[in-house]
Amino acid sequence: MASLDLDTPWLASSIESFDGSLDIHIEEVSSSASLDSLDKSKSIIHCSQTIPKPPPLPAKICQRTKNQRCLTKSCFVPKETKDLWDRLFREGYAADVHIITENGSVIPAHYSVLCVASAVLENFLQQSKAKNGIRYIKIPGLPYDAIYVFIRFLYSSCYDEGEMKKFVLHLLVLSHSYSVPSLKKVCVDLLEQRWLTTENVIDVLQLAKNCDAPRLSLICVRMIVKDFKTISLTEGWKVMKRANPSLEQELLESVVEADSRKEERLKKIEEKKVYLQLYEAMEALLHICKEGCRTIGPCDKVLKGSQVSCPFPACKGIETLVRHFSICKTRVPGGCMQCKRMWQLLELHSRMCCEPDLCKVPLCRHFKEKMQQQSKKDEAKWKLLVSKVMATKNAFGPFMSRRSSFS
Where would I find the BTB domain in this sequence (predicted)? Predict the structure, then answer.
């Protein structure tokens, strides 16, 4: 059961009052507006009769728009067409462009296809001079196979999964550099959904930042934050640490920030648990003093015995606290911790109770009167605590099987 850390200096003076107020029996056990609106409605009806009817809707335009939508939905590229474009690329029939790779190998292609597929390639090809009807462009810094997969995609939008997995990072760079959004989307989606690992996440993050892929960057950062200990030991992290220390600092700050948010979230969860326990303690206290429970309750109530189960989870703890409070010789806030908790629970109940004159909880009205003698600082602390407990009650109330008697 939760405890309070609020001291009330005038509690000791209320001990004798409590003895007189605690009437609890403890069984021995082992432990005109309408007319105006009518006139307005009549005037509206009169005005509406003079308004001409609107012209009919343009049916032909709507029909044309509908047909356009149907054509858009019915667009379909059969496999045979894709195979035809794939074959055109593989065989290089009537090729008028030669793409030179890093190792000097040549990939034949077609000027019209490259210009339509990529505005960047179109710009390069227009600036190049044709020799014997052939234009030459060079793509350095990347392996031949990666460039081959890239050019093939420009023709048929097809790729081999094994080749794509092997060269996905190269293709991401190529698709961004030569402005091919369809290929870039394929690379990003495959990395996000299937091919992002602890070994390559650092490399993918750096490429995602350079290639303007914010969603992929965010997923990489989340993965690094989640499994920082493992990823910080990879070779990619060590290389990044030497080559890009600013990115390392950024990631470390993200890890610290995530840890802080996690600690703050856990702290709030623990606080809500404490307030929920206090709320349940208030329910159990009111239940014992008003209705009675098993072996403890008012003298005018018939107790049900210790074998009967109680629906209030905090009832057993409150029962033990009440038994101790009734026989404790010290019973002052500074002398006994259990009695101090009981005093605080009684005061908390008094601050939450709306009917002190009819309430059967001991000293409820007495605490209401004593509140005026408290300092502003103590009063502010109690108001904050009551607001937190009531907020927890409102948050968890619909999900609890029982109803509280506090309003």
Answer: 95-163
Number of Cβ within 10 Å of residue 228's Cβ equals 17
Nearest alpha carbon to residue 96 among 137, 58, 62, 60: 137
Closest by alpha carbon to 389, among 269, 212, 237, 271? Answer: 271
Which residues fall within 8 angstroms of residue 200, CB to CB, at 6 or more apart? 169, 236
pLDDT tens for each residue of 70-105:
444 555 778 888 889 989 999 989 999 999 999 999
Token pair recorded at residue 397 = 């109330």
Class of domain 85-179 as given by CATH: alpha beta
Q: Is residue 202 pLDDT above 90, yes or no?
A: yes
Q: What tokens does 400 get?
A: 């609890």
The DSSP annotation for 196-248 comes to --TTTHHHHHHHHHHTT-HHHHHHHHHHHHHTHHHHTTSHHHHHHHHH-HHHH
CB 402 within 8 A of CB 312: yes
Tell the CATH superfamily of the 12-24+266-399 domain.
Answer: TAZ domain (1.20.1020.10)
Contact 287, 319 (CB under 8 A): no
Q: Quote the tokens at residue 81.
A: 């067409």
DSSP state of 371: G
Complete DSSP assignment for 124-162: HHHHSPPBTTBEEEE--SS-HHHHHHHHHHHHHS---HH
What are the residue ranges spanned by the domains of the chain? 12-24+266-399, 85-179
Residue 97 gets the label, from left (phi > 0), alpha (psi -120 to 50) or beta, of beta
Indicate the SS3 state at residue 313: coil
CA 92 to CA 83: how far, in whole Å?
Answer: 14
Measured at the alpha carbon of residue 341, what is the angle toward residues 328 and 269, in degrees to the nearest 5? 155
- This prediction has a pTM of 0.59
Q: Both tokens of residue 394?
A: 């409102």
What is the pairing mode between strands 135-138 and 97-100? Answer: parallel
Over the chain, what is the mean pLDDT?
Answer: 79
